[in-house]
Prior knowledge:
This protein is mainly α. The chain has helices spanning 3-44, 59-78, 81-92. Helix 1 (3-44) packs antiparallel against helix 2 and helix 2 (59-78) runs antiparallel to helix 3 (81-92). It is elongated, with a radius of gyration of 20 Å. The model has no long low-confidence stretch (mean pLDDT 78).
Amino acid sequence: MHHQPNAHAAHSFIQDYQEHQNEIHAKLIAIMGDRLAVHIGSLQSIDWDTPSTNSGINDYMEVLVKETVTLHKLLSRYLSVPIVEVSTVPLAG
């Protein structure tokens, strides 16, 4: 009978941890959605065929790189390395 309270406490801890992790994931998704909403208008207005006048770097590429770095920093702060890798490797591909 002594093991029963410990098992219950462990199960409760695991549930609390999973709920906390789900809340963090939901918050990250909301942040990414907010950032996407900010950039949708500017992405739609880009003339993708116009050459850059800024040292060969197109403004949209600079923004894309900055956003990718921001996303990686944000994910790295809250998620484990394997999850960050799974999430960001497709962006680099």
